[in-house]
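ok, trying the design again with the full structure, not the truncated one.
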């Protein structure tokens, strides 16, 4: 991304024989303004529109409505934010005897709007298909599913003001915000507090992440799945993420096998995703969620997923692509769920 006052210099510096240049978004601010207008316009009172981006207040109200309309789905407290907002999740418990837990979360990075939108779609699909789809019925009968649409609520709210904001809203020194996906307690590392990936003063220093840990740690022996949904890149990644080198992981083959099955279903229903190891195949990140899920909680099937797209729109994914993104991920989750049933049911 290049500012308007530097575009001539930039184009001059990269213009050389054999190098082609393509402009994907000619005016980023214009796209942000259009997106903001879509979110804040008065919406018709005709039910919740899953194909729009929503404010957090709308998402919270949607959770209340969703629970009231779906039996054996409850709204549960998962954590709390720096600004004191309760983080809620939807718990699907269709079978009272089910003990094993599948946990998925979205919105840990504020600007990745398609992540919460996909989480809401996931809940919708589960509820709609339970009575008619034997795969979904088996998934929900055998496991307790917990879906957290937005973990970083403070940051998500702030993206109404600063669309590209990533972190939470904790003031640290002269700078603002902690990257929650660097604040987990597996291989946490210090970094300058003004960095965009500032990991906090110590592991689990933030109420959002410490709350998730307090919620999940007592249940670690029952956890069978941990997935943190991000955007963008179209990637399905397993541990380890804290190093750029491939290091020993006794479950690597199994993690990759299930990821490959999941990706095949995604690809068959939408766009291809690349499967890999988080650190070597994307970039090293200490204190990240997938390493926390595997290294701290002991969940074999711990993944970080980068949703659409591969860079054409990036964080500013058009609303027209929410449904295709959710549909392909849902297909992948059903394939993954089938593997969970085979192993744990």
């Amino acid at each position: 991304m290049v500012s308007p006052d530097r575009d001539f210099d930039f184009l001059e510096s990269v213009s050389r024989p054999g190098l082609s240049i393509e402009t994907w978004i000619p005016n980023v601010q214009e796209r942000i303004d259009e997106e903001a207008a879509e979110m804040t316009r008065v919406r018709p009172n005709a039910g919740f529109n899953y194909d729009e981006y929503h404010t957090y207040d709308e998402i919270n109200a949607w959770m209340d409505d969703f629970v009231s309309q779906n039996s054996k789905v409850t709204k549960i407290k998962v954590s709390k934010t720096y600004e004191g907002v309760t983080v809620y999740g939807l718990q699907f418990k269709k079978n009272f005897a089910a003990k094993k837990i599948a946990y998925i979360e979205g919105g840990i990075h504020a600007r990745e709007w398609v992540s919460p939108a996909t989480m809401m779609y996931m809940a919708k699909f589960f509820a709609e298909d339970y009575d008619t789809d034997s795969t979904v019925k088996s998934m929900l009968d055998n496991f307790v599913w917990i879906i957290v649409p937005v973990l970083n609520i403070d940051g998500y709210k702030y993206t109404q003001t600063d669309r590209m904001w990533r972190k939470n809203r904790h003031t640290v020194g002269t700078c603002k915000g902690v990257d929650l996906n660097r604040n987990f307690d597996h291989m946490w590392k210090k970094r300058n507090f003004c960095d965009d990936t500032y990991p906090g003063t110590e592991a689990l220093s933030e109420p959002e992440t410490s709350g998730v840990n307090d919620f999940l740690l007592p249940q670690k022996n029952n956890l069978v799945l941990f997935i943190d949904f991000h955007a963008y890149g179209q990637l399905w990644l397993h541990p380890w993420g804290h190093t750029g080198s491939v290091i020993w992981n006794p479950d690597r083959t199994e993690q990759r096998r299930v990821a490959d099955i999941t990706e095949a279903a995604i690809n068959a229903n939408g766009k291809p995703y690349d499967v890999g190891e988080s650190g070597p195949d994307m970039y090293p990140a200490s204190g990240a969620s997938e390493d926390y899920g595997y290294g701290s909680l002991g969940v074999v099937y711990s993944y970080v997923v980068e949703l659409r797209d591969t860079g054409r729109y990036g964080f500013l994914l058009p609303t027209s692509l929410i449904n295709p993104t959710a549909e392909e991920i849902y297909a992948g989750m059903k394939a993954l769920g089938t593997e969970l049933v085979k192993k744990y049911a």
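Keeping the full-length input from now on. The mean pLDDT is 92.
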